[in-house]
Amino acid sequence: MDKTNKFDLQYFLTDTSFKNWAKGLNKNDIAYWNNWLLNNPQHIETVENAKAIVVGINFKPQFLSNEKVNQELAKILPKIGIENSTKKPLTKTRSLNKTIYFSAAAFVLILLSWTSLSLLNVHNTTTHKTNFGEIIDLKLPDGTSVVLNGNSEISYKKDNPRLINLKGEAYFKVKSIPSTNAKFWVITNDLKVEVLGTQFHVNTREQKTNVILDEGSIHLEFKNGGVTKMIPGEMVSFSNKSNEVVHKKVTIETPYALWLGGTYVFNEIPLKDVMINLELTYGLEVKYSSDYLKDIPISGGIPNQNLKICIAAIEKATRTRIINKGNILQVQENPIY
Fold first, then answer.
1. Measured distance CA(43)–CA(228) in Å, rounded
2. C-alpha dihedral over 246, 262, 219, 144, to 10 degrees?
3. Taking Cα atoms as reference points, which of 173, 180, 176, 131 lies closest to residue 152?
4. How confident is the model over 232-267, as pLDDT tens digits?
5. pLDDT band at residue 170, thresholds of 50, 70 and 90?
6. Cα separation of 172 and 169, whole Å?
7. Rounded distance, CA 201 to CA 258, Å?
8. Could you please report the per-residue DSSP string of 36-68?
9. Rounded Cα distance, 166 and 169, in Å
């Protein structure tokens, strides 16, 4: 998070980490902001005001005084061709002013109502967001478990926690509700996943969505109108940009990349695809000294919650040398081999 900005009310209201702290949603954010307040007591008043807005706000309708309305009308009327002429009958002038007054009052009420509704919609949404390299375990209000990978985000309305919007990568273990058969949805830029109770992995990286089903069954609705069903052990990939659908059984020959429990699991994945995971998860850039290095295949598990250990494991698996300098990973040949 960039803390160089001015710490005013708007700053706190637009900071996702701060909103998580205010709602008590993320232990990392709670620890950070509690410590920040200890070191920045001069901002306590602003922080408390921002927290009150985030947690919930009671809207009081504000009405303009007659004097204020008349002052503003005096500025606007000449611009739209209506003059306050003393030559016109007084009754007509009063009638016109009365009509305009009520029109202006109605406009103000509509504006206040729209603003209040917009703010209520913002505060009715719960968002969980991870930083680069951070993985968090979440329990949704309906009992569903979510593991959110680094640099990822889920959001949902408080009155509908079984309709999830996802950016990035997450693993879902959906809580089944047999009494009502309540469905659960995950929405990405490419498709909509519909389930009752199951376990599956969703990755929205690289301008496409990959879904791998571990347990149960799910129904996919693509943005192009197409639909398909999945059974355990299958993988579906779809890009709304290219309109391409790949639906296949996951086998030992199928190249794929998974993460969970602090470990990347790669199956015959080219090094360039492995490094893309690091770029997106840790906010890095990868460069190669030779193009052939990009196609070195990797299989097996690699720890992903510690970047240094992750890099060391990839070096060993590919017999390369990876230099981390200024958030740029330079992949080179290793002269030892």
1. 53
2. -170
3. 131
4. 889 999 998 888 899 988 765 565 666 776 777 777
5. very high
6. 10
7. 8
8. HHHH-GGGHHHHHHHHHHHH----------HHH
9. 7
pLDDT band, very low/low/confident/very high, at 44 (cuts 50, 70, 90)? confident
Beta-carbon contacts of residue 213 (< 8 Å; ≥ 6 apart): 198, 199, 200, 230, 231, 232, 233, 234, 235
- What does the block give as tokens for 237? 């990939």
CA distance 228 to 238: 11
- Strands 184-187 and 160-167, bridge-based pairing: parallel
What six digits make up the tokens of 141? 């209000």
- The residue with tokens 């030892």 is 336
- Confidence band (pLDDT; 50, 70, 90) for 57? very low
E-assigned strand segments in the chain: 125-129, 136-139, 145-148, 153-157, 160-167, 169-173, 184-187, 191-195, 199-203, 209-215, 218-222, 227-230, 234-239, 244-249, 256-260, 263-270, 285-288, 297-303, 320-325, 328-333
Which of these, 127, 167, 134, lies nearest to 149 by C-alpha position? 134
Query: DSSP assignment, residue 190?
Result: S
- pLDDT tens per residue across span 267-288: 788 999 889 888 888 889 999 9
Of residues 79 and 293, more confidence is placed in 293
Is there a contact between 134 and 112 (Cβ–Cβ < 8 Å)?
A: no
DSSP secondary structure string, 278-293? HHHHHT-EEEESSGGG
Answering whether pTM is above 0.70, one says no
